[in-house]
Amino acid sequence: MSLIFRPQQIVLLLILCLQISLLTGQELPVEQIKKQIEAYKDDPRGPYDRIRWFCKDGTLREPKDPCPENIGGGVQHASYKPAVKQLAEKHHIFFGLILANTERLDFWDEANNHSMLKQYQLGNYLQSIDDGWIQRKSQFYRGAVQSEDEQEWGVEFYEKYLPNNDRITKNYYLLRQSLRDVPHDGDSNLAQLMRSQSKVISDEFPKFMDIRIKIHGNPSIEDIQLVENFINKNEGKIPEKVNTDLQTLTKTMKEFYAPLNKDILLAQAKRIRSSSPIRKQILEFLEGYDDAAVPEMTVPALADILCTIRSSITIDTSGRDRLLLLDLSNSIEDVLLKKTQDWQPDSLLGLMEKIRHLSLAAAGTGLIELWEWEKIKPQLETHLGNTSLSIEDLNQFLQTSRGVVEWSAAMVKANYQDVVDRYTQFEPLAYGFIDDRVRSSVALYLGESVAELGKKISEISGTSNEVMNIKDQSNIRGLNPGYAKGELVVISGTSENIEVSSDKIYIFEKPPSDLKPVAGIMTVSEGNLVSHVQLLARNLGIPNAALSDDNLKALKKYNGDEVFMAVSPKGNVILKKADDMSPKERELFGTTQRSSNKIAVPVAQIRLDVNKVLNMREVNSKDSGMLCGPKAANLGELKAMFPENVVEGIIIPFGVFRNHMEQQMPGQGVSYWEFLNSVFVEAEAMRNEEVPENVIEDYQLSCLNSLKQAIENIELDTAFVNDLQTKFKNAFGSNMGTVPVFLRSDTNMEDLKEFTGAGLNLTLFNIVSSELIIEGIKKVWASPYTERSFKWRQKYLLNPENVFPSILIIPSVDVEYSGVMITKGINSGKESDLTVAFSRGAGGAVDGQIAETRLLTPDADVLLAPARESGYMRLPKSGGTSRYITTFDTPILNDRNIKTLRQIADKARKTLAEKTNDDYKGAWDIELGFENDKVWLFQIRPFVENKQAKSSDYLSSITPSIDTTKQISLQTKL
C-alpha cells in the first residue's frame, strides 16, 4: 500500500503513527525467507511438519486417534513447520495455507487489506507456474490436505460472509477473483491453468516460447491446432515430461474452448431458491441464449447479464444464492471471453460497439465500478443513431475507452499490488501475478480493440506516434510537451529508492513520489495530472508520456540505448534511437543550451530585519518573497478572501532563519551563512578552471549535505522560542504542545510565475508535542539543501544558492478527502475549464496517487479517471497519522463539492489578481480539502507551464494540422 507522504516525512510519521499495521511491524527477513523457499522445494513435506487430527475443542491428536464426536469431531491434515508458523506470527507471511483449520475471520483479514486471502491466491499462482513452488515435492505428501474438507470450508466461508452487503459492494472484484482459487464447488480456473501450463513448457523447452507468447497475449481456439502441430513437428525431439505437459495443455485448451454446456449453467441457476428476484431473469437469459449465434449478438447479451448480476446481487439476502450467482458470473465471463475472440468487426461502427459492450462487461466483472460506468456511458454511446462522427468525437470516444482499459488494469493492481510487492522481495516470480489476472479478464480483449481503434483514428487523421516500431502505439499518449536526448532506462516493478540521473530518459510503471530531475519520463501509471511530479515536469518542459504495460515490456529491449524523445503539445510521442535523429532534431541539442530559459529569483527586496513570529493575518500576497514565501503570503490573502474556509496560522519569516545562520557552524570556523556562500564561490571557481560539471555538483552536494545535518542540530535562540510559544497561543487559542499542526516549508524559490517548485521541500504533518515542533523547524529549514531540492533548483534557477526558507504553521484539519484544483483544463487547454484531482484522507493527489480526476467544463462534469489508491491517511487530534483502507464503490466528490469547487475557482479568478494588484492572468493551482462537505483551502499558487516547450516550432511540427470537425463515416472499413 502506498504512503501518501514524501520520503522526507516518513521517519517522523513512523514515530508519530499510532496505528502500525501488522504487515509493517517488523522488517522482513528476505534472505532467510529465500533460503526457506529453496529448502521447502526440496523437502518431501515442504512447509508442513506432520499429519495430525485437529479437533473442534482445540486439542490435537495423532493420525490414528480421530477426534471423538462427543467433542464435535475434527479434521485431519498437516501441521506447519515451526519456521512457517513463525513467519505467520511475526511477519504475516503465510506459506502452504490449509483452509480446513483456518479461522474464517482471519482468512478474510480485513485489518490487513485481506492479505491472507490474497496470499492464498498468490500461492496458488506460484504453484501453477513453478512446478508446485514450495510444494514441489510435498504436493505428493499424502493426507497433508484433504480436498473434501477444503471444499466444505470454502462453501461455509462464502455462505457466512456473502450475506453482508458491504462486503459485496465494496469488494466485488476481489470476491469474484477469490472464487477462482478458493475451493468451494470443484471449479477450476481454466484460463489461468492454460497460461500456467504453457509457461512451464516454454521454460523447460524454449522452442515453445512463440506459442506461449501467443497464448498469453492473443489467445484463440486456433491455438489448439498450433500446439498439436508443434507436437507433430518436434516428434522425437521433445523430452518425455515436456511431451506429457503438452498433452495436458492440449486437454486443458480443448476443455476451455469447448462449446457452452447450457444444461450445466441452467442446473446451477435452478439451485437458486425460487423466491430469489434475479432467478427468473437468469433462467430466461440462459434458456434464450444461443451459443451458435453470431458474437455480435452473444457478447452484448453476456455483458448485460454480467451487469445484471452485479447490480442485483444485494437484493437477495441468502449467502448460498449469492455464492451461486457469483459462480454463474464467473462462468458467464468465461463464455464471454471466448465469444469476444470470435467478434471481428470490419467497420468503425462495429469496433465501437464491441468496445462499448466490453466496457460494460468490465463493469459487470468488477474491473470498473458501476458508478464509473454510469459516468462514462454517455461518452461511449455517442455513435448510437449516427451515421458519422467528427474526428474530435472519435478521439473523445478513444480517450474514454482507453481510460476503461487503464482503470481496469489499475483495479487489479489496487487489489493485489501490496501483496505482490511484498512477495517479490523474496520470490521474483510473484511479479507476474498481476499481469496474469489482467490477461485472464476482459481488459485484455478490450485493450486490443481500443488499440485497433486508436490505430484507425491515427490513420484517418494523419497523426501517429513514432515509438521504436513497437506494436499498439496508439496506447501511448503525451502528457506534457518537451524534448530530450539521453540513455533510456526501463524500470519495471517498484521505482522507490531508485537513483536517477538528470541526463537519462526513464520508463516507469509508476514514478517515485520524490523523483529527482530527469531528461524525460514515460509511465504506465501517470498517477494524476496535478501531482507534484507532473507539475514539475510540465514546468521544466520535461517530455512526459503515458503508455501501457505491454508497451513498457516491448521497450525493455532498448534499455541502455541512447534515444531521442519528444512530446508535442497535442500529445504525439516520438521515441527513436539517437542515431536515427533528423538534422532538425540534432540542431535542438547544439551548443546553444536551454540555460537561457533559467530565471534569477530577485532577492534585493527581502526583509531580513523582521525577526519575530508573524500572525498569518498580518501578511498578504505582496509580502511574498519579502517577509516569507508565497505559501504563507497567499494563504494570508486567501484568509481575507475566504475567512471561513482558511485556518488560522503563524509564520516564521526569512529573517529568523537568516539570523540563526549567523551562528558559528560547528567544526568549520565560519558561520553557517559564510559556509553556504563559500560552497557556491568555490563551485564558480571550479567552473572557471573547466572542472567537469558532475564533479562540481558532487562537491556541492557533499558540502550541502554537511550543512543540512548541521542545521538540523542548530541551537534555537531562546527569545525566538519564547516568541513562538506566545504567538502560537494567541493564534490557536491553546499552548504549543496541545494543538496538532502542519509545518510547511515556504521558500522564496517556489510557487513563482515561472517556476513551481512543487513538493521540493519538507512539510511535516500533524505534530503535537513542543519538542517535535522545535525539531521540525530545524528539519524544515534544512530541507532546501537536500539533493533533490537542490537539483531541481539548479536545473531552472540562476541563483539557487540564495534560498531563504520561511515556515508556515497551521493547525491540522482532519479532512475526509483532499486534492488539487487547476483553474484551467490541463488537457483541453481551455481557460474556462477546471481540472481537479482528489484522494481520500490528507495530502491527496499531490504525491502522485491514482486520484479521482475530473474535467469540469462550464456545463459538464467529465470523469477523467477514478481513484485507485487503497490506502489513505487521516489526522487524529492526538497527533501523528492513522492509516485506513478504502474501496472504490462510491465516488470521492459529490455534487455539493463540485458546486463548491466551481464557486471557489470563480472567485479566485476574479478577485485574486485584483486584490494583489498583480498583472498575472494565468491559471491558479489550489490545494484544498473537504471535511463534512466544508471546503478548507490550504494553498494557492500560479499554475506554471513551460512556454518554450508549448511553443517550440519543432514540437508543433510533429503534429500535423488536423480539421477535428471533419466527419467520418461509421461504415469506414478497418
How would you portray this structure in words?
The strands form 6 sheets. Strands 5-12-11-7-8-9-10-6 form an 8-stranded mixed beta sheet. The protein has a 6-stranded antiparallel beta sheet with strand order 21-20-19-18-24-25. It folds into 5 domains: 7-255, no CATH class; 262-461, no CATH class; 466-589, Phosphohistidine domain (Glucose Oxidase, domain 1, 3-Layer(bba) Sandwich); 608-812, 2-Layer Sandwich (Dna Ligase, domain 1); 814-943, 2-Layer Sandwich (D-amino Acid Aminotransferase, Chain A, domain 1), CATH 3.30.470.20. The chain is globular. The longest helix has 34 residues, at 391-424. The protein contains 34 helices and 26 strands. It is of the alpha+beta class and 974 residues long. The two termini are 42 Å apart.
- The N- to C-terminal Cα distance equals 42 Å
Q: Write down the domain tally.
A: 5
**Cα-atom radius of gyration:** 30 Å
Task: Give average pLDDT, whole number.
Answer: 87
Name the strands of the widest sheet in spatial order: 5-12-11-7-8-9-10-6
Fraction in beta strands? 5-15%
How many beta-strand elements?
Answer: 26
> How many strands, which pairing sense, and closed or not: the largest β-sheet?
8 strands, mixed
Shape: globular
Number of helices: 34
Poorly predicted sequence stretches spanning 5 or more consecutive residues: 1-25, 591-596
Measured as a percent range, the helix fraction is 40-55%
Structural class, from secondary structure content? alpha+beta
Pathway: Carbohydrate biosynthesis; gluconeogenesis
InterPro entries: ATP_grasp_subdomain_1, PEP_synth, PPDK_AMP/ATP-bd
EC number: 2.7.9.2
Cofactor: Mg(2+)
